[in-house]
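Posting this for the archive.
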Amino acid sequence: MEVGIVGLGKMGGNMALRLIRGGHQVLANDLDPEAKAHLEEQGGRTVSDLEDLVSALEKPRVAWLMLPAGKITESVVDEILPLLDPGDILVDGANSFWKDSRRRAAKAAELSVDYVDCGVSGGVWGLESGYNLMLGGSEEAIGELVPLLETLSPEGGYLRTGGSGSGHFVKMIHNGIEYGLMQAYGEGFEAMASYPHGEIDLPAVARLWMKGSVVRSWLLELGLLALEQDPRLEDIRGYVEDSGMGRWTVDFAVEHAVPMHAITSALYARFASRQPNGFAARMAAALRKEFGGHAIVAMDTPAEDMVSQDDPGDEAMDEVERSG
């Protein structure tokens, strides 16, 4: 099957290669000449712009966008839609906001172009392992894409989730759950790293849990890879960005009164990771000093000396545990 791909980044480039390996004809465009040259070396064809891409594709066309969500995707959608003909299919594989996808689908429908929003999961491993695909759009349009979907995904790895917007909505929730899982693993392994009666072998525990444990997962497997390289993650700064889909998930929860304790907490933990000496914590320390005369830790205090005078210590905590 023939497909035109716009965007040959980490995801789009590998998806194009997987399709070529699966026997499909791939025509692509990207701003990076090296990405285009690499695709050509692997058997793909490239063009210089969107107009050439659309002209070169046989009708009915399938154009698949793998671009950063937001303004870039919006501008390319606006540019390519007038070039397409009725019956063509435009797929958006970015992490686009689901309401934007519904709006774009309605705009495409005015031109009798089928718009499919496709949430893609699999990361850099997708080239070899396949991609998990969540698709929103008409049954007819998604049915036309089946040869591509079967090549891109492992067996059972794609699903029509519903009408326009549902694919990106399900991907948004997927990423929100991912936030919560990552935070839970991080907190659990931090507790084990803090065990006071000997050093626990964290890679060994992760390896153990992959063998039948109820918390085994691909994320844990990836965590094991990281721990095997750096068992205490001493070379990594605990600064965690968020892609935006976690925020959208929490926004949806607030808008529709859906309780999301774990996902919301995980999102806020990412914010906190980027504020190692945040104002809120400094304010709380200042308030304790003002109302109770509690000691504060000065900015120039060495890390090893950062033990609060209010800390009850191990002996006091042992007494609390005994009395409790």
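The first strand starts at residue 2 and ends at 6. The chain has a mean pLDDT of 93.
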